[in-house]
Structures are given as C-alpha cells and as structure tokens.
Amino acid sequence: MRIALFGTGGMASALGSQWTRHDLTVSGRSPARTAALATELGAEAASWADAAARADAILLAVPTTALEALLTPLDLAGKVLIDCTNTPGATGEPVAARIAEYAPRASVVKAFNLAHVDVWRMTPPLFEGRPLGVPLCGTPDAVAVATELVRDLGGTPLPAGGLDRAALLEAAAGLAIGLWFDGLDARSMLMSA
Hints:
Residues 2-86 form the Pyrroline-5-carboxylate reductase catalytic N-terminal domain. The chain contains seven helices and ten strands. By secondary structure, it is an alpha/beta fold. It has an eight-stranded mixed β-sheet, sandwiched between helices. Strands 7-8 form a two-stranded antiparallel ribbon.
C-alpha cells in the first residue's frame, strides 16, 4: 500500500515505524523535520500535493486547526483519509465529519485516536496478553484499509460503524484523556471478567 504521512510528530513517527513494509511518503510544514522523519522511516519526503497524488491512504497527523487549509486545495478523489486526531474539550461538529466536508471525494475513517503515542510504538500492543482493540468508524472502503493497518500493528480491528459514529470515538477520547491526566486508569472502565 502507498501511505502518505501528513505530519512529522509523534503519531506519524510511531505509526509510520509500524508500517515500513508499505511504500511511505512523509509531508510536513518543516522541511528539516520532514526529511528527518523520512530518513528515520526509510521513506521519501514530498510536498503535500505530491504525497497525496501517489498515496492510496493518508494518515492525517496534523493539528486539527490546519486541516481545512491543508486538505481543500488537494486532489483527494479516491483516497482514504485516516483521521487519528483529537481535540480534547472541543464541541461542535466532529473532526472526522469536517474532514469529509473538506475532501468530499475521499473516504474517511476515524482510527488510532484512543491510545497514547507510546502505545503505537509497542510491537505488538498487548495489554494483559491481549492485543489492543482499535475502533474504526468510517466508510466501508476506508475501514477495510484501516483494518489492514491495525493488523500490521498486531492490534485487533473493531469496526464500529459509519462516519456518523466517529463523534462517539472523539468523545470517548476526550473522556479517556481527561481521566488519564487526572491520574486515573481509564482502561478499568472497559474491563470485563
């Protein structure tokens, strides 16, 4: 698969390091950081437009405030856009829904937003001997692509419905992140016997 990593921070680095069997391209705002991450991953550095043109899937690991200006000028027809962003405390329209508006000819999936960046560096991400479950909300074709990428990490894909359900993942992230920042174990609310 040809994957473009939009962003050069922790999420792009962590997830990109797990997807090196694929053809990776890195794009970012800083040429130096873009080149450094591309070198780290054995990938190619490219402009946003060039990376998008050659990608099958694009990981959106940039600040949510940058998404509209970044996505609207690009030709994203037929691309799968993977939204791993979180905006804790945000209200209003979910980020994933806004992405679908900015790129109406692309397929969008909300994924990889519920775990800390360090979890994505685990090979595989196991907790108490069980693989991490990764909820996926989006169009069927986008969920299929994300399913493959979750399996690449050693996780368990959890298809959770259409893009209309992405708001639930964003709200769950806000709740879990708030609990973690308060020093509480958010995992305990999801444990079963």
